[in-house]
Amino acid sequence: MKKQLTILLWVLFFGATLQAQVYRFEVSGVSMSVKQKRTWSEFTPFKPARFVASLNTPKNYIAIYSEIEQYFKIQKYYDEKQENGKQILGFDCVDLNGETCYIEIQTRKKENMSQLYINYNDRVLVYNMKYLKK
Fold first, then answer.
1. HEC assignment per residue over 38-99
2. Of 33, 64, 35, 34, whose CA–CA distance to 49 is shortest?
3. Number of C-alpha atoms within 13 angstroms, CB side, residue 96?
4. What is the pLDDT of residues 3-28, one digit of tens each?
């Protein structure tokens, strides 16, 4: 039920049809932070990028089609939450190396922008992206 509600809210937010359950985004920048001796570094300046990321709910995966393709199997969907003007969708995932991570898609309606956060125990990657309409 949580998964269906999240998908419905996602669809309504972007004005797509109920049949469209694969969401594509154009990535424009990448940044990261690493954990060293229990302390997180500052995020690096965003490096310009141009590639596609997708959320495929029927197949339960998130894909990032960068120079090195990354795939994440969704293990758990979290309910949507609103925080500081952002809509946040969260997922527990496992990457192709078997490493667990928590992924968030944060959308700021006023700025017409989304960010994809991939949170590992020792590093966080963040991608600036925009929704690609069909």
1. CEECCCCCCEEEEEEEEEECCCCEEEEECCCCEEEEEEEECCCEEECCEEEEEEEEEECCCC
2. 64
3. 7
4. 443 443 444 444 343 344 899 999 99
**How many residues in total does the chain contain?**
134
What pLDDT digit, counting tens, does each position of 104-133 carry?
999 988 888 899 999 999 999 999 999 988
| 84 backbone φψ class: left, alpha, beta (φ>0; ψ -120 to 50) | left
Considering only CA atoms, which of 114, 89, 94, 111 is closest in space to residue 24? Answer: 114
Single out the residue of 115, 104, 134 nearest to residue 21, CA to CA.
134
Token readout for 126 is: 């963040």
3-state secondary structure of 12: helix
Cβ atoms of 92 and 104 within 8 Å: the answer is: no
How remote is the C-alpha of 60 from its chain's centroid? 13
